[in-house]
Amino acid sequence: MSKKKTSEFGKGFVYNLILFAKHYENIIKEVEMRDKQKELIGEVLTNPYSNWFYKATDHLYDVEIPEQWKRTKIARLTKELIEICFNSLKKSIS
């Protein structure tokens, strides 16, 4: 029996991109909630966009572009998204 490679943040292509996008839904809700909090307490505690970005980028580590899409615009845009995200993470850490 062979062991399948697993990932804590999802593995594949479409699945991982959907998980990444779902974090966007969360940021919209979080920003709305923080706007209401700001009205009540007069401050915003943390930057919700930074939190969203760190959480969402986790799902890009194990993206696997299917063979039939490797030479398409979808693959190119996915690679660009991954590169932008990881370069931004490196900059924010240093």
Protein architecture, described:
- The protein is an all-alpha fold and 94 residues long.
- Helices cover 63% and strands 0% of the residues.
- The mean pLDDT is 76.
Question: TL;DR of this structure?
Answer:
The chain is an all-alpha fold and 94 residues long. The chain has helices at 14-41, 48-57, 73-93.
List keywords for this structure.
3 helices; 94 residues; elongated; mainly alpha
What integer is the average pLDDT?
A: 76
The first-to-last residue Cα distance is 43 Å
Treating each run of at least 4 consecutive H or I residues as one helix, how many helices? Answer: 3
How many domains? The number is 1
Secondary-structure content class: mainly alpha
Number of strands: 0
How are the elements arranged and paired?
Blueprint: H1 14-41, H2 48-57, H3 73-93
